[in-house]
Target: Agmatinase
Amino acid sequence: MSTPAPREPRGPVDSSRIPRYAGPATFARLPRLDEVGTTDVAVVGVPFDTGVSYRPGARFGGNAIREASRLLRPYNPAQDASPFALAQVADAGDIAANPFNIDEAVETIEAAADDLLGTGARMMTLGGDHTIALPLLRSVAKKHGPVALLHFDAHLDTWDTYFGAEYTHGTPFRRAVEEGILDTSALSHVGTRGPLYGKKDLTDDEKMGFGIVTSADVMRRGVDEIADQLRQRVGDRPLYISIDIDVLDPAHAPGTGTPEAGGLTSRELLEIIRGLSSCNLVSADLVEVAPAYDHAEITSVAASHAAYELTTIMSRQIAASRG
Ligand SMILES: N=C(N)NCCCC(=O)O
Ligand SMILES: [Zn+2]
Ligand SMILES: [Zn+2]
Model:
């Protein structure tokens, strides 16, 4: 069914009139949600990092990405699209998650996502640590049923518990499988690498239904072949993409909490995302940017570009569905 666009989307601040570095930062200098009322794509921050196992600081990731996104321009040549003209994209601000109580934070994030998705918007969430993917997936699954998942990360994040805690940044996808909110015939990690606790990490992960495209696979087989394989795995199912910025090599993303050598380049990540542009992307997150360890915004610039590509995929699809 095609629904008419309610009005012309309001785009970013015109950077030929108002310098890019002026004023408070919203993602890509887009309007705030309260300035447009409703939106097709909501860019929302989740400043929460109580779930981390190593360096803290991802609570500042969303605002660092917003700052770094001032230089994004309105036409995306790689996808031949003007994402902010095809659909309304707006910055919905931050979800106020309790930093002292993980269970409560997880509930708050799920409820806020329910509210946004309930308006018909798709979400582009800026973390925050990877814990937040669980409540976001819960909310997405309430709307779409179990979803396909492409998870870009150095880590599996299908571990069981840390210090007895079930909700951490290393465990969201095991919880999600246990809860039946993922379509276990269409799950893949991308960019996996680095030391594990034991081989069982991999056998458990495989039993949950995940495929793995390692960082070395990307290097050996190339981005086009990898994107083809991922597209085939996902088909036309509703797809959620979760990007942990540590999927990038620390040379491309030093500003993160659990860095691992031997990762993707930012160019490889962006090209793989673009190769997924025909997938039915219902929402996405980008997590684990920890700006205190960053230099010259290397990490947050890469993150802002990845979020831009994801947003472009969503707004193209929204425009296409309106005909
Ligand atoms: N989700 C991220 N970034 N890291 C998970 C690492 C879990 C660990 O330290 O074992
Ligand atoms: Zn990770
Ligand atoms: Zn992760």
Observations:
- The two ends are 9 Å apart (CA to CA).
- Residues 8 and 176 are 37 Å apart (CA to CA).
- The longest strand covers residues 182-192.
